[in-house]
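F.,

This is the one I mentioned.
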């Protein structure tokens, strides 16, 4: 049977959305993958994308730890955060604009505009090379 990504995600979550978020919050993407028992990479990518985009796991995390993520982006750059969360820069930008951090993020962009675009370009190049 061929499940849609939301159906597949529901199957793995088994109603434990809050518990899954807490695992994601404390153990990151790979900890969540282990918690859900997903071995297949393609399945994980579909489930993870659904958790990010439909269940807003990333947005919740960015909002909850706003100060930490602002400091991390400012001090270490976008690539560090994207790598840790196993996301693309475009996904991060989408979630930042959708979250309550959008005003603060625009301030960071303006004050570090050169670094921001260099980081974004490097991440995009790396994504394309993969």
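My design for it:
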């Amino acid at each position: 049977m061929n499940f849609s990504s939301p159906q597949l995600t529901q199957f793995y979550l088994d109603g434990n959305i809050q518990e899954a978020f807490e695992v994601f919050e404390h153990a990151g993407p790979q900890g969540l993958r282990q918690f859900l028992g997903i071995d297949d990479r393609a399945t994980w990518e579909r489930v993870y994308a659904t958790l990010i985009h439909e269940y807003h796991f990333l947005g919740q995390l960015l909002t909850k730890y706003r100060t930490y993520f602002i400091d991390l982006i400012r001090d270490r750059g976008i690539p560090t955060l994207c790598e840790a969360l196993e996301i693309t820069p475009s996904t991060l930008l989408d979630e930042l604009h959708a979250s309550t951090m959008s005003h603060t993020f625009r301030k960071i962009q303006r004050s570090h505009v050169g670094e921001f675009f260099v980081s974004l370009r490097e991440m995009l190049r790396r994504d394309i090379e993969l």
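Residues 1-55 form one domain.

Talk soon.
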